[in-house]
Design a protein that fits this description.
Blueprint: H1 13-21, H2 29-54, H3 60-93, H4 100-138, H5 147-173, H6 179-199
């Protein structure tokens, strides 16, 4: 973690707001949207925990809850990774390039940071798809009085995935090679569209 990077797990929401609204490069859209996705999972957990009171014999709820808890931890970690990887990219930009050796070292550092940022964006997209899959599994099981929270989770996760996709596309546009990352992005994007359509079904 870069020295000036904030620890998102212990950062007050108001402090994160101020940092995101500042002219500093981090935290940016990928990090902030992943934090929103993290909170979206909380809404889905709430809808499950309220619903299980009225449907205590539904065996789906406990399984989905445990999976969501694991995914929420991943999202928070990936939000941090997004901020850190972009911070590393900014640091690489500032490296000296006054000799051929330093220029080559700077170029490699920029490439490595771009690859890491792209991988993190795709990690976020994959987790988002996993959350959407779980939301679809319970969308008609949760109590109607709390279904708005489940639907809010779906929309927030979709927005997070869209941001992750755009970040990955931006990075890949400047990257030599990266065919495996492009394939991963294509597959995840298709899956996102399918899952979102399923979650929007009635």
């Amino acid at each position: 973690m870069p020295a000036d990077s904030q620890n998102l797990a212990t950062t007050p929401l108001s402090t994160l707001f101020d940092a995101a609204a500042s002219t500093e490069p981090t935290p940016g859209g990928g990090c902030v949207s992943a934090v929103c996705g993290y909170l979206a999972v909380a809404l889905l957990l709430k809808s499950i925990r309220i619903s299980v009171r009225k449907q205590p014999t539904d065996s789906t709820f406990p399984v989905v809850e445990q999976k969501l808890l694991g995914l929420s931890a991943k999202l928070l970690a990936f939000a941090q990774a997004d901020s850190d990887s972009f911070g590393a990219y900014i640091q690489a930009l500032r490296l000296p390039k006054d000799t051929p050796e330093r220029e080559a070292s700077r170029r490699q550092a920029l490439h490595d940071a771009t690859v890491k940022a792209t991988e993190t964006a795709l990690d976020i997209l994959d987790v988002g798809n996993d959350v959407l899959d779980l939301a679809h599994q319970v969308q008609f099981r949760v109590s109607t009085t709390i279904r708005a929270d489940e639907q809010s989770c779906v929309e927030l996760i979709s927005a997070m995935n869209t941001t992750a996709r755009e970040n990955a596309l931006t990075n890949l546009a400047t990257m030599q090679g990266g065919d495996a990352l492009r394939k991963r992005l294509s597959d995840a994007t298709t899956k996102h569209k399918e899952l979102l359509a399923a979650c929007h079904s009635s």
